[in-house]
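Let us work through a complete example step by step.
Step 1: write down the sequence.
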Amino acid sequence: MIVFIVAIILYQLYDIGWREVVRSLPTHPLFYIIFGLLYVSLPFAEVFIYGQVWKAKKWDLFKGFITKKVLNDEVMGYSGEFYLFAWGRKYLDTEDKEILKNVRDNNILSAVTSNLVAFSLVGILVFAGIIELDDLIADVNTFYVILGVVITIVFIILFVQFRKYLFSLSLKKSAIVFVIYITRFVIHHGLLVVQWAVVIPNTPISVWFTFLAIVIVVNRIPFIPSKDLVFMWAGIELSKMLNMATASVAGMLLVSSALQKVVNLILFLWISYSDKNREVRQLQMEATETTS
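Step 2: predict the structure and record it as tokens.
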């Protein structure tokens, strides 16, 4: 699938014109500063999120969450969660069952937060007139609308009824984690808009809200790697539909994707090397204690 997406992107860039895309690459330093902030926003937030239930050094947690991010970005969606479970088993003095519950609960809260933001953005787009509500529901049969509402209500009732079996975090900790997630989402997506606006100024905010909606939808697609490439593909097509400077959009999305992959590779290699050295030192210390 990734090969297919890369092939389409290459065709898109060829269709725009490689020289035009290269001339449109971002040159403003603020674009790259914001990229760094965007990159660390989730691992940084997760240090405080998992800090509610895990007792470990913040730096060790941060490195673990960076690796989780790299795996989710480049290998497959949710592969980072499997790594996080293995990391917890290795470095935490906690039962496997509890570690699994913690990862599960935080993923549920993350999904709830992102879906809430997505629905809010759709509401803003409808209110602003970017999306016509009549167009969204014109072709939808009333029966399916009622069925969807009923299914949603049933799921809510089941979740409330069996919450203690599906979700183990206390109400207080859940509220803290939710606030951290929503704060991170608002800051992260706000910075995205600023980053885009640096490259293509004087663009209506409603256009960037449309791009944000696409970002959130793409990020919620499970089990696919390189979601940045999927968004790049969608973003270039969206820029054509919105009569934007397509070369500029392609340039900034190309740079963002390339930077993410380079940084992912560098940090993954560095953290792997650091962890390996740490294990060697621990083995040496244990051997010294045994012989002495």
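Step 3: interpret the result. Residues 34-129+171-244+253-279 form one domain.
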